[in-house]
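The protein record quoted for completeness.
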Amino acid sequence: MQRTIINTPTAPAPVGPYNQAVAVSGQMLFVSGQVALDPATGALVGEGDVVAQTEQVIANLKAILTAAGASFDNVVKTSVFLKDMNDFATVNEVYAKYFGGDNAPARACVEVSRLPKDVAVEIECIAVL
């Protein structure tokens, strides 16, 4: 198995001992959970605004996918973590702009008690290269 580490300055630097993504044997890409941090400053984007946070999370995912030579069309699975399940419909509206339609990936969505930096949403994904 060949592992290739993916890190790009166009997405936030990891806030712990992990990489933005790992490509395995040039076939699978595992993207770490992304939160609403500005890649340039590391500051939280959209404090208290789940729409703005979700848009930033997806922009961060896109930057990592792009760095690995992939796009949203390559994504086969996402996991969405919400601080409050009452935000489910709102997050879905933003999510559907990027992952909607017949090509939508498989997905899990769960409510959690707390997320890094106290954000409202975190999304991770798996893509086929």
Summary: The chain has one domain: 3-128. The domain at 3-128 is CATH 3.30.1330.40 (60s Ribosomal Protein L30; Chain: A;).
